Amino acid sequence: MDYAEFHLNLTEVEVQVRLENGRTRRQQEAKSPMLKPLEMFDFEATPNLDARLIKEFSTGEFIKKAFGDWAQIFRDPNLTAALLDRVTHKAHIINCNWESHRRKEKLRKRD
To answer: What is the 3-state secondary structure of the chain?
Structure first.
């Protein structure tokens, strides 16, 4: 490797480091990504969001329901189809028609 190639490689590395440092600095300045509890979210600033529905989704209870029931929960067939597509992509779905062992134990402990 001659001096010109060495200098070119060194310059390329320096450019990459500067780009990465710039990205990092901009993210820190923007405080991104910022985690915000749902209680602090301003639903009035985004009136097209249904606050009740978002809070209901945040509990994750819809996950326990059958996929066929998701259309009633999300109230939009296109949104439901997109969510199911992403959830089930490359997944093996096993329909269990028997009582869950974990559920039995949970109910037994509750009684």
So the answer is: CCHHHHHHHHHHHHHHHHHHHHHHHHHHHCCCCCCCCHHHCCCCCCCCCCHHHHHHHHCCHHHHCCHHHHHHHHCCHHHHHHHHHHHHCCCCCCCCCCCCHHHHHHHHHHC
- How many domains does the chain fold into? 2
User: Is the separation of the CB atoms in 70 and 62 below 8 Å?
Assistant: yes
Cα maximum dimension of the chain:
79
pLDDT averaged over every residue in the chain: 84
Q: What is the DSSP letter of 111?
A: -
Give pLDDT tens digits for 54-91: 888 888 888 888 888 888 888 888 888 888 888 888 88
Residue 22: what residue type?
A: G
User: Does residue 8 fall inside a structural domain?
Assistant: yes
Quick one: 64 and 97 in the same domain? Answer: yes
